[in-house]
Structures
1.
Amino acid sequence: MSKFDDRGNPVSYRSQQAIDRLDRVFHLMHAYQADPLAEVDALLAEHPDFVMAHLFRAGALATATDRAFEPELVKSLTAAEELAPRANDRERLHIAACRSWLDGEWARGTELWGRASIEYPRDLVALQYAHLGDFSLGHSHLLRDRVARVLPHWNASVPGYGFIQGMYAFGLEESGDYRQAEARGRAAIDLNPQDGWAVHAVAHVMEMEGRANEGADFLASTAKAWAPNSLFAFHLWWHKALFHIDANDMTGALTLFDENISAGGFGQALELVDGSALLWRLSLLGHDVGGRWAGVADPWEARVDHAYYAFNDVSAMMAFVGAGRTGAQVRLIAAAQRAAAGQGTHAMMSREIGLPACQALASFGRGDYASTIEHMMPLRCKANRMGGSHAQRDMFSWTLTEAAVRLGDRALADALIAERLSWKPESPINRAWALRAGQLDRKRVDLC
Ligand SMILES: [Fe+2]
């Protein structure tokens, strides 16, 4: 006889008590609270043939987008595949999704988790993994629409309703519907103040609308609820640091780096991505970040040959340029070239974005700003293909604007700054760029 989880999804396992326990693990993951992997490991120690528990673990490890986790992902997926004959249809979709992801077909893996959420609209784990896949692939509108597909099947009586609102809020934000995004995000926070993804969605709205002081206050005032056991705190602190930078408070941003963003010791790529992105912005503005680059560059260098995810490669290159590690830059570009010549999702990402972006950043490190612009300008129209959020990909605009100013290309600098001011007219950073560009002579640039 079939058993069901607390949202009514069929589960092939025999023990209802173990299924209920896995529901509580799911809740931790949806809220980004510690520590669903430790909890599922304890569950699997007692129930080693619980296929959905293995699949939960495999999906969480896959969507962390770090090759360092791949051996554990293989372990979980292998266990699930061995149990496949007794799995149900929903679980077999999860198996296929994890297999595709592990084989480098991230887009197909994301679609398979998405298909599971279409067939089983209350399969919130499948939806969250598809949501994270969409995030890693830069599918801005699917971050919204994949959640919208299942909304008719949810209401406040279904456990996890707030998490659906939080995911939808982030998708709305990435799709530019800031008013509805903020309303949905705040509604989710009201239901569960520990919901890190909903807090994140509201922070993104404030980032995109240039509400720097309000954004910093919002994160500070809500942190008591989400921060203490959050596995996502480093990223929310990164957002707070961006607000500080946009309010011209570089000391506040560096303090957040030292005390919060680096608190996990940069043990995973997701933390390293934020470390690189923050130090890169500060360095571009001419701030001395001291020895902090080494703390980020060292763990990136341990991954230099991974060529696992273009977003990671670009983030690693920022650290190698910031730390002045030319040898690592050369190795990373060689790895990206190998990846670009391969197959699968990452090959596409490397060809389209990762490799030219790494070359642009390496050029910046050599002071060859014309080369930076040549490599990076054509990426603006398709930068989403390397994944991430609009706020993260703003790095392209930052780098190009600074390169144009340093090169003395007045026309390009004026154009990029006009773009930035149309978005954030009050930003002291944008105004400072405008002042510097205003001091440049308008000279003829040989464009052809
Ligand atoms: Fe974010």
2.
Amino acid sequence: MKISKVEFNVSNIKRCLCPECPVQAESVCVEGKKRIMAEIAWSSESGMYFEADRVPGIYCSTGKAMCKDINQHKKCRCGECEVWKEYNLGEGFPDFYFCQNGEKR
Ligand code: SF4
Ligand code: SF4
């Protein structure tokens, strides 16, 4: 089955579990990005102001994490994610750890 490209949009960003993933929990770099995101209004779709390099998540769409101080020995949460389920990301490669393995392809 052909896997469709995961869209970089507000709905998917909101459902992404990466910001709460143990792999990123100790990252100073991720913490900084989360703080900036919290300052950006979530309220309207038209207020969307995200750029891929600002969002510490949705790596299944955007590819490997820019932050390098993440701990890939911790457990990936993608399998619990609604985006992962909707796009059947368990099929093919990569299926987990998109922050390390790059976007779904
Ligand atoms: S599948 Fe993983 S990388 Fe993609 S949105 Fe969900 S938690 Fe984030
Ligand atoms: S891709 Fe998986 S391992 Fe990487 S931050 Fe997201 S949930 Fe965690």
3.
Amino acid sequence: MSESRGRRSLESQRFVFVTGKGGAGKTTLTAALALALAARGKKVLVATSRAQHRLAELLGTPSFTTEIQPLRKNLWGVYLVPEVALREYGALVLKSQRLVTLLFDNRYAEGLFHGAPGLREWALLGKAWFHTTEKAADGAPRFDVVLFDAPATGHGVDMLRVPKVILSAAPPGRLRTDAERAYSAFQDPSFSAFVVVTLPEELPTNETLELVSVLDRELGLPVAEIVLNSALEPLFSDDEARALASFGKPHGESAVAQALSIAARRALAERVQAACVERLTQAGKPLRRIPRLAEGAASHEAALELSRHAL
Ligand SMILES: Nc1ncnc2c1ncn2[C@@H]1O[C@H](COP(=O)(O)OP(=O)(O)OP(=O)(O)O)[C@@H](O)[C@H]1O
Ligand SMILES: [Mg+2]
């Protein structure tokens, strides 16, 4: 259902960051993408910063834990928690379990460490990135793709600003070198893809255009596609929509009046969607439509159905 040619397939990316407005369908899309990629034989690690039962339900798997768990064929999951990520990072950098224990088990030191602005967010991003660099025993990447179900727009963008802040503020050292490596991997369009999920309504469209511009222009991050989730399959022509326009409010109590009102509201939603698509297209990014399922998207079956549209 892609509307642009020349798209770089998400299949060839090592890191996919799914972001967008709250409630737009990030978790739903993450699950649909994960199932589609795994079905094509990719080894997929799904990372989430929220202990979401919903994500596991959509994937048809047990809930995520802070340890990477195999979930089903070609699919692993991990719940990212700053404290755990920082502890792991500490262990990696300090290379001494005793030092890590000293640092993290001393309440005073912990308070200091956690007080550093952005460090918590960086810990999540840094851990997600670290898993893209891991190798299996045979030297092949441990995961072909790390899919990150990111926090909603505001927090998601703050999180992405963190490596930049570290680069400008941190003294030379391991933290800065890692931030540099991670940030240049995030900026590399052959390695990373940022996917912005939106809905066919005016406010989400405004927010999406803003977000795309921040990612693209301010942060230099590759927006691979905009995903219009809950897209309507148009039922009415322009003439039909015009004919229905005055029936939005039911004219009376009869079943016919109710039915006309439902049709009129649907026609209006389709026109709003068309206007949103036109505006979104101006962002110059590939636009993918994921259909609205009448029964909602709460089950594994729904995620499987949507996975047919995700790649
Ligand atoms: N394509 C779809 N068709 C029907 N319902 C959908 C679709 N996509 C998402 N939904 C419904 O929309 C709601 C929000 O979806 P989801 O949880 O994926 O959004 P989110 O962006 O991850 O939200 P949050 O910002 O809270 O993490 C859910 O109730 C889901 O069932
Ligand atoms: Mg979510």
4.
Amino acid sequence: MTTQGTPESIDIRPVTAFDLALLGELHAAIFRAPWDQPWSAQSFAEILAMPGAHGWLLTSGETPLGFLLARFILDEGEILLTGIAPVARRRGHAARLMRVLIESARTAGLRTLFLEHAAGNEAAGALYGGFGFSRIGRRRAYYERRGGGREDAITLRCDLAGVRIPHQGGPLE
Ligand SMILES: CC(C)(COP(=O)(O)OP(=O)(O)OC[C@H]1O[C@@H](n2cnc3c(N)ncnc32)[C@H](O)[C@@H]1OP(=O)(O)O)[C@@H](O)C(=O)NCCC(=O)NCCS
């Protein structure tokens, strides 16, 4: 999937085994807070080896800018992790990855998507809220932070029959 006629040529494609090192580098560039846990190429390999695991990589030309990992099990799916390089944020890239995910989930016959994000992550809350995810719970002290401390997780659910697709008409529609 490639956008045409835009200043950036954005492509989203499934992750392959050749992308593992690159995903580790992208993760380090995205999750830079002192409390973030690093993910190595091996971490990505293990996640993508899980049954039902899917991954997509978003690139601009040759430059990788973001990724989304999810897992599909029967008629339910879970977003495991997504992120966009700091230099490329607020250009609709995470929304593009979400649209690819939702299209794939529907094609695979999924009915519901779940995810959790850190309670303090307002950008994530706004992104998923925009697609119609609604809050179903809070897990106290769910995330362990490097260097100590813990943070609550907010759990979200989206019924794919009623999903909203914001940014209609934009690239990759
Ligand atoms: C959250 C994240 C993935 C958003 O990526 P992005 O490409 O900048 O998001 P988009 O440009 O597609 O934005 C889509 C919508 O999300 C919301 N949003 C994104 N960033 C936001 C921010 N910093 N503050 C408030 N809302 C935000 C907005 O509603 C936005 O729509 P709009 O631009 O029309 O207002 C990105 O900030 C990121 O990688 N953060 C670090 C990693 C992370 O938190 N991952 C998610 C948890 S797993």
